[in-house]
Every structure is written in structure tokens, then in C-alpha cells.
Amino acid sequence: MFFAVISIMPQMFAAVREFGITGRAVSRGQVAIHTINPRDFTTDNYKRIDERTFGGGPGMVMMAEPLEKAILHAKTLAQVHFDEKNISAPACPVLYLSPQGKTLDEPSVVELAGLDGMILLCGRYEGIDERLLERYVDGEISVGDYVLTGGELPAMIVMDSVIRRLPSVMGDDHSALQDSFVDGLLDCPHYTKPLEFHGQKVPEVLLSGHHANIAKWRFLQQVKRTQARRPDLWEKFTPTKEQAKWLKSLDDV
Ligand code: 4H6
């Protein structure tokens, strides 16, 4: 999968590029991450990318022109990448990270993971000149209802969540298929060595080797947690046949 990120702080992306599962995906050539600094496309001596807002008031706005050049450069890099990989008619939208976007959730991550690539546009200051957005942006994504100083961390959240949904990246490891949110419930608790920690024991059922009982116990833990912490998710949940049977056993008490 192809990523091009447009940001005036390209060094920040070392976090996804160089570490952990995302870093490994890059080293293995499963993921390409390009960063493009709009400052490199300025023409004045000061490399200005921001200007005062028309209409007055505090705060600066990112100017359209350096960003346009950066986006066009990203599209050229994308074209070269997809040509080399023999991908025809690639799906590679320009996505803007902003508090006004559609809030990212696991279904949208799965959808994004089905793309051939994406160009991520990171705003700073008060945001970007609206005309640039109108002309070039295909979609707008938020990572939650709070404000950050820039779109870089949201872009990395998108990249990290999308990369871990790529089958080639997770390989035989099924944990991405099992964990929280995939079936619409919160995750169950996890335990490892030692058997006892400050007097707290590992739940007996997990040591039993009885896989059906363990699956049922984990599911009921998920249910308990989701009901207590996220009634909104619980309301939307539809159980499978087996899960419905397990849920009935709760009423039998
Ligand atoms: C675009 C427009 C995303 C980007 C405005 C970005 C939160 C999210 C930004 C801004 C972001 C999110 C600049 C507006 C600072 C507020 C960068 N904050 N902001 N929730 N900030 O996904 O002032």
C-alpha cells in the first residue's frame, strides 16, 4: 500500500516508518511511506507556508499554492509507484485530517485498507485555505472530537490502523481478526505468566485447556465490559448463533 503524507513536520513520521509492526511492513516493502514538505515548494526567501487570514482575527492559515505543488508531486510519486507495481486505475484519494471530518472507526479503517493508497494532507495553524480543499480533497477524516495542534498525529493514527488491517502485514497472526471492535464488542481481559501476581490469580477456566469453555468465558467477559462501559456499542450488537446461545446461559441463573 502507498502512503504520501503532506506535512511541514515530516520527521514526525519516523514513528510509523521506523518502529514496530508498521516499521517492519515498510522494511518488507509491503508499505511505502513518502513524506512531502510543502515548504520545499515555496518560492520566497523565507519559505513561508502560512499567511494572515482574510477578514481579520488571530491565527494563520496555510496558503494554497505550496500545498497544491506538494499534492501534485504526491500524485506523481503515486503514479510512479502504481506503474511499477502494475496497478491500473488505482484508488488513491487525497484525505484531509481535520476536526470537521468523519470520525474514524474500525469499519472505515477496513474500507481504507481496501484502497491502493492514499495521500494524507496534514494541516497546522488554523487550517488550510478552503479553495485548496475544494479543488483537491476527496475526503475528510477526524480521529475524534478533540483538537490537536496539527494533522500529523491523526495521519499516523490512520496509517497505523490501516497498516494493521493489511493481510500481508498481519500474516498468519489472527489477533487482528479477534480483538476489540471487530465483532462490535470491547476486548476481553488477557493474562500471561506468572500464575499469581500480588495474590491475584489467573482465572481458572483459562488454565483448563477446554477451548469451548474458554471461548464462552471470553465472550461473556466482552459482553460484561461492553454493557458496563459502552452501552452505545451494546445496543448495536447482533450476536451469532453460538453467541446467542451463550447469552441465554446468562438468563438461566
Ligand atoms: C485541519 C484544520 C485533526 C487540521 C484545522 C486535526 C484534531 C483533529 C487542524 C486544524 C487537528 C482530529 C488546527 C484546528 C489547530 C484547531 C489540526 N485537530 N486545527 N480530531 N488539528 O482528527 O486549531
Descriptive terms for the model:
253 residues; alpha/beta; Alpha/beta knot; Trp Operon Repressor, Chain A; 2 domains; two-stranded antiparallel ribbon; 9 strands; 42% helix; 16% strand; binds 6-{[2-(morpholin-4-yl)benzyl]amino}pyridine-3-carboxamide
Largest sheet: 5 strands, parallel
Quaternary structure type: single chain
Mean pLDDT: 96
Tell me the CATH superfamily of the largest domain.
Answer: SPOUT methyltransferase, trefoil knot domain
Short description, anyone?
With 253 residues, this protein is α/β, with parallel strands linked by helices.
SSE blueprint and pairings:
Blueprint: E1 2-6, H1 14-18, H2 20-27, E2 32-36, E3 50-52, E4 60-62, H3 64-84, E5 94-103, H4 106-113, E6 117-122, H5 130-136, E7 139-142, H6 152-163, H7 167-170, H8 175-178, E8 196-197, E9 200-201, H9 211-229, H10 231-236, H11 241-251
The structure holds 6-{[2-(morpholin-4-yl)benzyl]amino}pyridine-3-carboxamide (4H6).
